[in-house]
């Protein structure tokens, strides 16, 4: 937004310093005038017939006072300009860093030295903001690149299938349609997951009272056929756990947790336990499953979009794009909750989500 040019902050501070100094000098002269000259008699003989009278003192004092006031004014302007420059020097560094960041370079840091004062706190806060902004931008770029790659894969497969069908008209059409449906379904699921992830990141959803125990039962009921086909026991335990938030997003969050627990499990004889409770003013849902041993260094990366550990990647019909726990993490963050992942020594994961009872 264009603004009319005006006085700089340094000039305004200089004028303020000079004005206050001149005002202090004027007050001092007024005190001298009011409390000293008032006791000097205003007659030709002066005080006791030997001191000068008031008229003579005023005539002598006024030129000296005028010179003193002029000196104070000049001294205030020069000294104020110098002091204002010294005081605003840290602000110049912050402004330069802001211009550098505005040009697209987010790696620059102020790193102001000296004692902790208001400018130092502002510079440190600006450095922290730049660090978070740089991390966020880098994450967004990685996300966009990975999303483009993941979306390109089903499209490339569809194009290949169509090219093969065009070159070989005798190819089984029903098989081609079935494979195209599978590829198309994965592309749709991925697109919906990306849209839901973006929606949860923005926090643009209606909030209402939600019971996590009912959400857990609905998610378990939906995924029970999948668990039975894989020979996995799926149990829901615990009691009511009411929180404030989006019922749709919370259902998707719990469904993702349970589906991950079922898919990334033992080939047969595995278990998945979903437990809900209220603890310390928060609604808690904990999903624990058996499965392969997860390396401790892999656990922190599981919530990053498109990050799939070698041990957890699937190649069957439930192969994902690595958005399951990323979406869970986004939903938890949008509801001001906490997400904790811990690897079980015997294999599998324990995922604990705690949401405030009132997330408004």
Topology:
Elements: H1 9-35, H2 54-102, H3 118-167, H4 173-202, E1 208-211, H5 212-229, E2 233-238, E3 242-245, H6 247-263, E4 271-279, E5 282-289, H7 324-334, E6 338-343, E7 349-356
Parallel strand pairs: 2-4
Antiparallel strand pairs: 1-3, 4-5, 5-7, 6-7
Per DSSP E runs of 2 or more residues, the count of β-strands stands at 7
Oligomer: single chain
Order of helices and strands: HHHHEHEEHEEHEE
The helicity comes to: 55-70%
The largest sheet, given as strand count, sense and whether it forms a barrel, is: 5 strands, mixed
**Helix count?**
7
Question: How far apart are the first and last residues' alpha carbons, in Å?
Answer: 34 Å
Q: Structural class per helix/strand content?
A: alpha+beta
Q: Mind telling me the C-alpha Rg?
A: 37 Å
Strand content: 5-15%
What's the overall geometry? elongated
Average pLDDT confidence is 80
Strand order across the biggest sheet?
2-4-5-7-6
- Unreliable runs, pLDDT <50, ≥5 residues? 309-319
Quick recap:
The chain is built from 7 helices and 7 strands, in the order ααααβαββαββαββ. With 360 residues, the protein is α+β, with helices and mostly antiparallel strands.
Structural description of this entry:
- 56% of the residues lie in helices and 12% in strands.
- The protein has 360 residues and is of the alpha+beta class.
- Strand 6 and strand 7 form a beta hairpin.
